[in-house]
Amino acid sequence: MQKLKDKVILITGANRGIGKSLVKAALGKGAAKVYATSRNISKIPDFDDDRVVPLALDITNSKQIAEILERTRDVQILINNAGSLRPGTILEGEKSRMEEDMQTNYHGTVDMMRQFASVLEKNAPSKIVNIVSIVAYSPFPSIAGYSASKAALFSASLSVRTELSKRGVMIQIVNPGAIDTDMNKGSDWDMPKPDNVAKIIMDRVETDELEIIPDTRGLTMFSAWRQEPSNLAAIFDKIYHG
Ligand SMILES: NC(=O)c1ccc[n+]([C@@H]2O[C@H](COP(=O)([O-])OP(=O)(O)OC[C@H]3O[C@@H](n4cnc5c(N)ncnc54)[C@H](OP(=O)(O)O)[C@@H]3O)[C@@H](O)[C@H]2O)c1
Predict the structure, then answer these.
(1) Cα 1 from Cα 208, distance rounded (Å)
(2) How many domains does the chain have?
(3) Which residue's CA is the closest to the ligand 1 atom numbered 7?
(4) pLDDT digits (tens, 9 = 90+) for 198-223
């Protein structure tokens, strides 16, 4: 079991939503240092804590990842949280928006894992925590590009888990259902606040759980899928068709 106390943690997309809450939760756990990254450094909130090191990072910019890596070579836990959601169906959604989600959620996160793997191996025992989504198990058609990008990221995370299993780097996958952040702006669903969810995520990261579903709605969906994969497809079908 790896406690977060005294660990050096890097969190992407730390300026708002779940990422911002994960920074607070990491500090609450007694992390030694938290690299809080955002594509716009001026948007990173003041966490009023000397352990926070703000850094500019767009995960779709490979050169910038390489630069950040040089400044964070003591990182022990990489939390790939940054992500984008552009709504749209496969048949009618804008192709460029689907490509954007794939670029960020899949290619960007894969690039992070590729570039940080050797540093994490050197700092082992270490971890990569990928914030994926419940739609990795079964797609929700209104956000089809996003769903595909998260399914691809889920698959890549499983591949990397095997690649790194003998090298001291654990891969944990977080698959939330629906959390009350900007990503769900306009939804009338009753959703948990990111601060509460981030605390649950960090508790479960410490217990070395490989697949973490941090919210009740996500758990209901996960249970349906685990019982029989078409059950989750049926839930999404019902929501999609009203
Ligand atoms: N909210 C949910 O219900 C839910 C459910 C399942 C999974 N998730 C996942 O949880 C993660 C956090 O989402 P959230 O709900 O907190 O959404 P959010 O409030 O929209 O935050 C998304 C974060 O990702 C950052 N980001 C987007 N593209 C980026 C890029 N190219 N490089 C670096 N940072 C980038 C955003 O930065 P800017 O401010 O610069 O845009 C922002 O900090 C995402 O991976 C999301 O897919 C969320």
Answers:
(1) 6
(2) 1
(3) 133
(4) 999 999 999 999 999 999 999 999 99
